[in-house]
């Protein structure tokens, strides 16, 4: 008897709450925040260049809304002691995106934070991404980091990521299931109650 394995898919959700952060689905209204972040000279040295035209960012987000193969989030502070909330809304800290599902492995990236994001933001946002991916049914991860982006290489290697190749200035990494579980456990004080989320969108 053959048993058909159903492969996980990346799904969108309106929001995912962690400990001190919320990942909220990016929409067209976030275009100017994302545009400014992608153009930020302290943050974009190791990112693929995006268009210098703000209207292209709006179009990118409109296309994203129709693309069910990825989930793109803005990272917000649930509460941010010492930082006043932004006028009319929560404090936006950065972005992160899940994309390129390959069987049981997912890719994540477009990971950027404002330079003054609180220090826990990087690790908590990474842990939220891994928890969400496990809920979707993924078991491992793959991603690329530009050569020379040493701090980010170190960050991923601390999580157990292994270099599996280099191509066109990019280092390719994988992170297996055991290392994901180990890191979620090792860094559990950053995400003590796991995640809560809105229903999957599709
Ligand atoms: C990638 C990015 C989101 C990471 O965020 P970051 O804040 O720089 O991440 P850091 O590695 O400095 O970690 C932040 C803090 O968490 C701490 N931390 C990181 N990993 C940790 C770990 N495994 N255990 C405990 N603490 C950890 C760090 O020590 C640091 O604290 P400090 O500021 O008190 O030293 C950010 O650097 C960024 O936006 N970079 C530009 C875009 C980019 O290159 N993106 C990656 C593309 S692949």
From TrEMBL:
Pfam families: Acetyltransf_3. Residues 20-161 form the N-acetyltransferase domain. It comes from the Bacteria. InterPro entries: Acyl_CoA_acyltransferase (IPR016181), GNAT_dom (IPR000182). This is RimJ/RimL family protein N-acetyltransferase. It comes from Ottowia thiooxydans.
């Amino acid at each position: 008897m053959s048993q058909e394995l159903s492969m996980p898919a990346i799904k969108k959700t309106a929001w995912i709450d962690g400990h001190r952060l919320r990942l909220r689905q990016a929409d067209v209204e976030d275009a100017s925040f994302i545009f400014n972040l992608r153009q930020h000279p302290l943050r974009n040295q190791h990112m693929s260049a995006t268009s210098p035209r703000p209207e292209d960012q709006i179009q990118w987000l409109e296309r994203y809304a129709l693309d069910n193969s990825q989930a793109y989030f803005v990272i917000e502070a649930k509460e941010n002691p010492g930082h006043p909330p932004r006028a009319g809304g929560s404090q936006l800290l950065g972005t992160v995106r899940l994309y390129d599902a390959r069987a049981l492995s997912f890719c994540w990236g477009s990971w950027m934070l404002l330079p003054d994001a609180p220090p826990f933001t990087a690790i908590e946002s990474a842990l939220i991404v891994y928890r969400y991916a496990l809920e979707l049914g993924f078991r491992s991860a793959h991603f690329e980091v530009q050569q020379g982006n040493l701090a980010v290489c170190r960050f991923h290697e601390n999580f157990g990521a292994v270099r599996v190749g280099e191509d066109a200035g990019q280092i390719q990494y994988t992170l297996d299931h055991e290392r994901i579980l180990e890191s979620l456990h090792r860094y559990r004080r950053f995400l003590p109650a796991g995640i809560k989320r809105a229903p999957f969108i599709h």
